What does this fold into?
Amino acid sequence: MIKYEKFVLENGLKVIVHKDTSTPLVAVNLLYNIGSKDENPEKTGFAHLFEHLMFGGSVNIPDYDGVLQIAGGENNAFTNPDFTNYYILLPKENLETAFWLESDRMLQLAFTDKSLEVQRNVVVEEYKQRYLNQPYGDIMLLLNPLAYKIHPYQWSTIGKNIEHIQNANIEEVKDFFYKYYAPNNAILVVGGNIETDEVKRLCNKWFSPIEKRNISIRNLNKEPEQKELRTLTVKRNVPYDAIYKAYHMCSRFDSEYYTCDLISDILSSGKSSRLYQSLVKEKKLFSEINAYISGSIDEGLFIFSGKLISGVNIYDAEKEIDLEIEKIKNEQVGEYELNKAKNNIESSHVFSEISILNVTMNLAYYELIGNIEEINTEINKYSIISSQQIQNIANKIFKPENCSTLYYLAENKQ
Amino acid sequence: MTEINRKSHPELHKISKLNLHKPSKNKLNNGLPIFILDSGNHDVVRIDFIFSAGNWYQDKPLISRITNTMLNEGTKNYTAFEIAEKLEYYGAYIQLNNFYDFSDIVVYCLKKYLPDIIKIIEDIIKNPVFPEKELQTYIKKAKQNHIISKSKVQNLAREKFLQVLFGQNHPYGQIVETTDFDNINTGQLISYFTRLYHSQNCKILLSGKIDDEVVNLINNCFGGNDWCQNLNTVQIEHKIQPLNQKQTIIIKDEAVQSAIRIGKQLYNYSHLDYFGMSILNKILGGYFGSRLMTNIREDKGYTYGIGSILVSLKNTGYFVVASEVGVEVCKNAVKEIYYEIEKLKNEYVSIDELNLVKNYILGQMLRSFDGPFNLADSYRTIIENDLEFDFYDKFINVINTIEPVDLINLANKYFDTENFYEVIAGKY
It folds into this structure.
């Protein structure tokens, strides 16, 4: 059970306080409601590039990292299609340093040419390190645009191509800042051995002077229903074939989301799961196989991914995945297997509450998706799911015309 | 509202006191050492079974790793599937890790389910049977994964660097070849298991919510004489034979980044200069604000990340700078790495920078002792290496007293760059 208190500043900043007396640390998590889905299709990768620029100094503090390190703190950030999240973990005594830093960069960035030039290069190297210089590294860069034709989830957070990042200029950076970085577009969570009154005092001092900004309401086109099977075949310099099958599923707000999550657990969580037992152990077709949900806020994907054992034909292997899909569509999951998946969710839930940083991040996320209390009650939504519901949802999603399949073939087979 | 000063740092508080919760040490009925870290508010338990096993003790490549990985692939009383299904039914996780000097079995579970799974854990540790069928499936998978990992420049550079430092015949330096997967049989695994997995070669670390009930369960399952071997522990020695060649280039034509490894053999935790070097290393490349990051990422934009580490192994240690950089800037990056190292030998670290690093390390220690599992990780090192529990107190003492002159002396003593080894994988 995670306890919290919530208040909103006049400028619209939402603040959540979680008291935990067992730790000498405080975690400060600041989530901005801006992700790669908000980008201009001609300037993708910008939200993430911007995340890098947030460490390039703010109007009053030239060196963000240095002053935090003096205070014994550590920080990082990540960007995903839905939001950008910044966090700091530091000794409780130095909490005010975090407020000073985060409020100053919310007030205004330094916008230096030097920082932009360097971070463009750093992000290009990140692109190479993660996507181009790794075997199988470009798979999601191929799969997302196959599955999404309208919705901006079609491009990855890193961006459609390197040129978009290389061409970013300082004016665009400024525009982006004032368009999306604002108290009324952010959620601040403070966790640790701290009183709400103290957080209120610090918020009033550091964040309240920042004026509300004009944030346009997000209005994204919904991905239309997919009506026919899509396939893409590529050849790459990798040793083994890989297959990806992506089915459209519901959004994070839909009650069906939890059922999809359970289905993915039944299919592929752990060594006793169906896909692993049948396709890796018994039939020996795959060296690894997974089923998972993309977990996005807007309508997401239910993805199957597998790397083939050498010598196995990719279309034969796909048929065996299809057989497992047919099985979950046609036969009800037994009680033991269903309980196993639910117990697994319960266990993950308890383990996720151990780290103070994790708890503050989760609080920000649940506030973002509209109902913070779900952090405590969501577990119940899993416990009531029946075998019948699982079968219904499996039949609803796992239709050939709802699927995008990527055949990622090895150029020089081993 | 009063005007606030956004230009200057709010009042800073030095981390004066670190509450280093120390484990209690005990013995099971059969003499097996058990370490207990009861902490945290969550009803979870983690059990680390640490064996003096690992690559150091194997006769040929992969035996240690495969033996440890296959402990849960079938036992006297349960099939591989039954083990997985039962553990997963109770939401328990098991990790099987193989290292150079140790192997472990780490179990995470909700405290309420420990009685339901402990018999399975007991069977995994005492009675694995290494079924031939499961072995063949595992080897096929592992061989493929090995081939994939060999196509990554960072792996090529890492393994080559260790080989260069320690030699192909030394367990720390040995490179696993694809053909090594071909001649593994269950007999080799069983003999390795029998030699090393017994109560006199094991330590247990309990963390999370640990009470008498948990300790009694562990004692009932692992405190008996049924898994003693009465073997004399044989000390195995290996000779370090570094390569003569100081620079090794591995060409990979299609690479868009090159992996760099530069460094030398050093020493481990038990060396008198270890703490000081670890602070010097922090300054050079041990955190985001380090000199290597500041210069090579934040000023030049050559890389997404660069760092240096001191790696401590049971019998020695090493120092290494590691990065992946754009192929076209690789030579410049190497030059800048040496520039930063030389600078530490020639110029005193400023008091401001040293204070920053001291505070940063203390903050890092605070984080690494926060929460039951971080605490367990921090003491694993101590327990594995038979160090004293005041290890971290001594480190804090060095942090509080070290001065720029000590650091420049250490840099000149150990950063003898003419004896450094360089490995580049990609293009150069």
In short: Residues 5-206 of chain A form a domain with the Cytochrome Bc1 Complex; Chain A, domain 1 fold (CATH 3.30.830.10). Chain A touches chain B through 84 residues (CB under 8 Å).
